[in-house]
Each structure stands twice: as C-alpha cells, then as structure tokens.
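Input/output pair, single chain:
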Amino acid sequence: MLLALAAILFGLVLLVWSADKFVDASVSVANYFGISQLIIGMVIVGFGTSAPEFCVSAISSFQGSSGIALGNAFGSNIANIGLILGFSAIISPIIFKSSILKKELPFLLGVSVLSIFLLRDLNLSRIDAFVLLAVFAFFLGWSFYQAKKNKKDILAKQVKNDFAVQKKQIHLKKEIFFLVLGLVLLIVSSRFLVWGAVTIAELFGVSDLVIGLTIVAVGTSLPELASSIMAIRKKQDDLAVGNILGSNVFNTLAVVGLAGMISPLTAAKEVFSRDLPVMIAFTCSLFIFGYGFKKRPGSINRIEGSIMLLGFVAYTIYLIVTSSPV
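Output:
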C-alpha cells in the first residue's frame, strides 16, 4: 500500500510540474510563431491545463479502467467549478464581462447534456466518442472565429496582457525541448498515478470510479487551481473563468472522446444517476450566477462561492461515505 500511495503522490507532483512546463513552453512557441493571444488563452492554455486529465484518462482507457477514465474527466469538471471557482470567489468576488464567456456558458451546458444523452445506456462506443470529438472540432473552429470577431473583448485584453511575450526573448529550441519534456513526463506521471489509484481501489475495495472522481480528479485539476488563483490575484476575473470553461469543454469532449476512441467505455450506473446530474447542477449554478442577465455583468460573490464550495465538499463526503465497504 505504501508503494501505491508513493506512486500517487509522486505522480501528482510530477503531473502538476510537467503540466506547468508544457503550458509555458506551448505559450512561448505559439507567441514565437505569432499566434493570437486570445487563441493562446482560449485554446492552447485550455488544452495545456487539461493535459493531465487527457493523459490520465487515455492511459486508464488503454488499461481498461473505465471508472478512472470517466471519473477523472467528470470529477475534474465538478472540482473546477465547485472547488476552484468556489474557492477563488471566496478569496475575491469574481466579476466577468466578456461576451465570449457568455457564449461559452450555454455551450458548456449543452455539451454536458450531450454527455448524459450519450451515456444513457451506460456505454460510450467509438461512435459516441467520434460524436464528442466532432463537436470538439466545431468548438475549436468556433473559438478561432470568436477570437477574430471579438479582438476588443475584455477577455482578449486580459489574455494579451498576460501572455504577450516579445519574440526576441523566446529561445525556440529551448522551449521546444521543454514542450517535448513536459509531454513525456505527463505520460510517465499519469502511468504512476493510474497504477497507484487502481491499486488503492483494489486494496480498500473501493470502485475505481470513486477514486477517479476524488483523488485523481482533484489532483489533475491542480493546474487549473493555480492558474485561476493567479488570474484572480491579478484582477483578471474573465481569464480565470475562461480557463475553467475551456478546461471543462476540453474534459467533456476531448478527454472523454479520446478515451472512448482508444477503447469503448462502460459506465457504472452511478455515473448516469449521480455524477453527471451533479456535474450538470454545478454547470447550471455557474450559468445562473455568472451569465449576467439583462445586460448586467455576471458575477460570483463570496456567498455564491461558499455555496459552490460547500456543495463540492458535501458531494465528496457523500462519495467517500457511500463507497466505504461495510
């Protein structure tokens, strides 16, 4: 058991470190080739912070651990909203005015509902996975279109200030090296984490789904936590929310889609009856709190953030209590 715990701890630490290096190198390479800062913020950083979920779910699917593959993706979505945005709002109320985010919120809600539809039979076939990846491709195209259309959007300004780097300051070969190194270490650390998680689940008689929804999901969400807190401290609220929205779309479509293409996934009945409804509920709360109706800016105040955080804590406690062997 000690070896499995060590593998989880080592895997999580290496996962977070390699994800950070991967994101930094990706941003530098993108800046070097003149890619729009808004595209960098919405797509590249969104993918980078979801890279841990990407690797963990892909390896879990390859090894036949459907519970960790799905639990990691959906659990990370729940943690992103309940834990990360809830905690961030308690630190400092979040106010976001971006028109792009207002368009992403309904889209995220829509793809969450799509997940319930595709998993209604408790199976995610390769055809289902292809549908998710096709919608993800549409999302990427739509993001590029929005980036060109809304160059003066508040989110665009925040991203430009945060990610703008002078081309002459970038050492391309060095950044490519860290890009490849980060990707390799992401894969290696994911293998350690998945092995340790599966071993712990078997030792304690807990389903790999619960392990995926708790330890693995929170661990792979740490890059989003770091990015969001940093953005909040810089008063870049729209960037913090955009990071979470982008990550959740990536998790729902690309992470689950890729895992399903590698190997068809079988979902436990709890995924459909418990976890997906909770994910929808958190997404709806973000939509209600943050959308900002009647042309008013959306916001998440400290009370709303506390509600989201307490909801996440209650859900996690319920998972642990109900999954404990009698």
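The chain has one domain: 2-323. The mean pLDDT is 81.
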